[in-house]
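A.,

Following up on our hallway conversation. Structure tokens first:
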């Protein structure tokens, strides 16, 4: 009787272990995390990108989840630590993560103009008396984030080139998003904002009179485009797989429209690493130590 009991117990234990093993294997299903910087309402941004992530996941054969943080640095740190596998990030963020975490730039976004990049612009209200950058002395300016290329780095360098001391000649703040900067300008809480060239086109549906309310007074040199950065924790095979999946998914019109609407890019191409050297030079002009930005 004891032997029969032991035999039954062994069989039950075996099936129990098999069941646990199957559950464990399901739990360990690979999920890739795609990081994006907070360009607008974080929850809405994640929701907006969900169909793109799903299409990308179908090409990869694994689930892709979208992640964002309250700041650009939060996303960069996630990619650097490996808790985020790859990201769609602005070029300055790409350079930071390259320097600090040895991440790899695998693709760069192509803008609507067909160029692998975009421009920063300084916007003011049309009803103001501000006609040039020199007129901003003594004024209030909204930047986006200390790690935003168009929303701070390149725009700040433009102001410096115009003879404006950022610490003495203007009062500035960081808004946390391009849309938030725009609203500060419309509400007359600031006199000027730094953003990207397609700001008006991006928000004209939500603010129909935007084209009559604000306009740019200065434009930067070309900035490298939105960059796909892969964590150093990913092996070369997975980086190449993500790269090929992105090149494939850009052929999907619905998926492409999502990133065109969000990031003003019409696809991806191979990055030119030399173009990122310009960001390092601009950073020097802005007294930014790329190894110490946190």
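Then the amino acids I'd put at each of the 294 positions:
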């Amino acid at each position: 009787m004891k032997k029969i009991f032991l035999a039954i117990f062994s069989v039950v234990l075996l099936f129990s272990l098999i069941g646990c093993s199957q559950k464990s294997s399901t739990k360990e299903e690979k999920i890739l995390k795609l990081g994006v910087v907070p360009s607008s309402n974080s929850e809405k941004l994640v929701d907006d990108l969900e169909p793109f992530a799903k299409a990308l996941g179908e090409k990869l054969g694994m689930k892709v989840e979208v992640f964002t943080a309250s700041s650009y640095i939060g996303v960069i740190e996630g990619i650097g630590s490996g808790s985020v596998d790859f990201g769609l990030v602005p070029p300055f963020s790409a350079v930071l993560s390259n320097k600090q975490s040895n991440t790899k730039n695998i693709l760069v976004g192509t803008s609507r103009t067909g160029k692998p990049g975009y421009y920063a612009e300084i916007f003011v209200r049309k009803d103001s008396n501000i006609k040039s950058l020199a007129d901003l002395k003594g004024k209030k300016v909204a930047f986006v984030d200390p790690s935003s290329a168009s929303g701070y780095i390149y725009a700040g360098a433009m102001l410096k080139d115009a003879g404006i001391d950022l610490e003495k000649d203007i009062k500035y703040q960081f808004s946390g998003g391009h849309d938030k900067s725009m609203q500060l300008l419309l509400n007359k809480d600031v006199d000027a904002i730094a953003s990207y060239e397609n700001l008006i086109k991006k928000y004209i549906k939500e603010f129909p009179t935007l084209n009559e309310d604000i306009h740019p007074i200065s434009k930067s040199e070309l900035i490298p485009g939105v960059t796909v950065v892969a964590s150093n924790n990913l092996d070369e095979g997975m980086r190449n797989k993500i790269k090929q999946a992105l090149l494939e998914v850009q052929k999907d019109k619905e998926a492409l429209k999502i990133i065109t609407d969000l990031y003003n890019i019409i696809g991806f191409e191979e990055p030119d690493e030399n173009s990122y050297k310009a960001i390092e030079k601009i950073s020097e002009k802005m007294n930014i130590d790329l190894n110490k930005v946190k």
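The first strand starts at residue 31 and ends at 36. Curious whether your intuition agrees with the design.

B.
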